[in-house]
Amino acid sequence: MIEIKDGILLYHGSYTKISDIHLSMCAKGLDFGQGFYLTSSYEQAYQYVRLSVKKAIRIGTLAEDFNPDDGQVSVYKFHYDPNLLIHCFPKANAEWLHFVSANRDKKLFPELLRKYRTTDIIIGKIADDQTARTLQQYIGEYFGIPGTPQADADAVSRLMPERLQDQFCFRTEDAVKSLEYIRSDRYGEIKL
Prior knowledge:
It is built from six helices and seven strands, in the order E-E-H-E-E-H-H-E-H-H-E-H-E. Helix 4 (about 130-140) runs antiparallel to helix 5. By secondary structure, the chain is of the alpha+beta class. It starts with 8 loop residues before the first strand and ends in a 6-residue tail after the last strand. The protein is globular, with a radius of gyration of 17 Å. The chain has helices spanning about 40-60, 95-105, 110-115, 130-140, 150-160, 175, and strands spanning about 10-15, 35-40, 70-80, 85-90, 120-125, 165-170, 180-185.
């Protein structure tokens, strides 16, 4: 079960350590919209480091000869604030599918974008590579019109939600303030 509680450790894998979070530098069009993404799985964050390095090299943020071993897993402690508006999608279901799709294609399910517009933290399953492919097919109407019961059922059945990990999207400055930076671990020195 996915949950967030006071004192939980959360992890972020990247090509660099991130001790100061700047939401303006966070990408748009991700699963839960623009925000700072973390996971409760150290291993998942670790595995993301190489992907982050490859992406940064591809877009020119890093030099071609950057050593992936210099990537970082940053560790944060969450401090619960009762004033934060938090929503959790406990499983990959139709509403989760619609919300992720809406964040990737703003023409789909605009009512969900409005519904969660002021949510500080959104928690749910992560769309991995296979899931991303299924989402593209869903948005492209491969399974039928998005939002119809048949298209939703076909897409969700292909997602294999039991294999998906979690993600925590900190979408507002207030949400980011609830995170305490603990440390960053160098990718090349991590032993799993």
